[in-house]
Amino acid sequence: MPEYLSINALDRLLDDLVVGEARRRQLAMVRGELQRALDRGALPFQARRSLRRLLEEDALGPYVRLAESGTLRTRLVKGERPRTSVSTNEIRRQCLDVLRDALGLSVLQLGGGALPLQPTPQFGDLATLRRELDQNLAGSMTPGRIRLVAVLALVLDAAPRAGELVAQRLDDLAPGNTAVYVERRPQRGGGDQAGEGDWFELSPLSRAALDRWLPVRAELVQRAHGTSRLWVSLWHNHDGHPGEEGSTLNRPPGMPLEENGLITSYRRGRARYGFAGVLPPKLEQLRRAVLAEMPPVAL
């Protein structure tokens, strides 16, 4: 396979990017597609030598059209290379924006344009969500509902990302659960810096939710021989990676909750526990709504 200076530079850029595991997998997909587009001679010649030229519009336009057609797929689907899905196309465009932003380039509108973002809750809806969570805390709840209510309460107070939530540990809680520390793990360049964080005062709602979650967590963790992570799994599962004998490793309840697990629990809990009327489909949409409601920080 030919070696391209632009791809070598892209690899170095990716190594330095601070992103979550899911975004890193998506960026790896785009990196592979770009290399295959170069292999096919489908992009301008200068895109082989310069990362900036590779990420310019005259190279990305043909790349996006080729990728969306399915031509750059590595695996066949029923013997063919079908067009990539609308969601994959949007993820591809987001990744290109991340790369261009990291290189100091402006965001582009490529192909058919990005999908419109689904609306975030309005401020009144967030107040309704807080009331509904408070009502949940007043009654009997399953462990799954308890964990979701506690997660949602912390998001309403501190607006952490999914990756920031699953990284939290018990010592990120102040005595009496009066505050929580959030270490920022931004998805892309700009804004918050990786490794920086702050303490956020917790509302009575969050303190009550944590009072319900921490005893459940302690019992789960005791079965799994201990972890300091704040958010842990509720059920047996596996890591999804076959071992030498082809079997996957069983993970007991009480193991640290991974980012994908948190996102899945949000999606399922939204439907299962009757929150669909007050929660958006994605946790990130809720986070953005909370950020919009927060007062600006004085400079």
Write the topology of this structure.
Layout: H1 5-16, H2 21-39, H3 51-54, H4 57-68, H5 86-102, H6 123-137, H7 143-158, H8 162-166, E1 179-183, E2 197-201, H9 204-223, E3 237-238, E4 250-251, H10 259-272, H11 283-293
Antiparallel strand pairs: 1-2, 3-4
InterPro entries: DNA_brk_join_enz, Integrase-like_cat_sf
GO molecular function, one term: DNA binding
Keywords: DNA recombination
Descriptive terms for the model:
mainly alpha; two-stranded antiparallel sheet; DNA binding; 5% strand; hpI Integrase, Chain A; 48% helix; 2 domains; 299 residues
Structural description of this entry:
With 299 residues, this protein is mainly α. It has two domains: 5-102, no CATH class; 123-293, Intergrase catalytic core (hpI Integrase, Chain A). The chain has eleven helices and four strands. The strands form two sheets. The protein has a two-stranded antiparallel ribbon. Strands 3-4 form a two-stranded antiparallel ribbon. Helix 2 packs across helix 5 (86-102) and helix 7 crosses helix 9 (204-223). Keywords: DNA recombination. One of its GO terms (molecular function) is DNA binding.
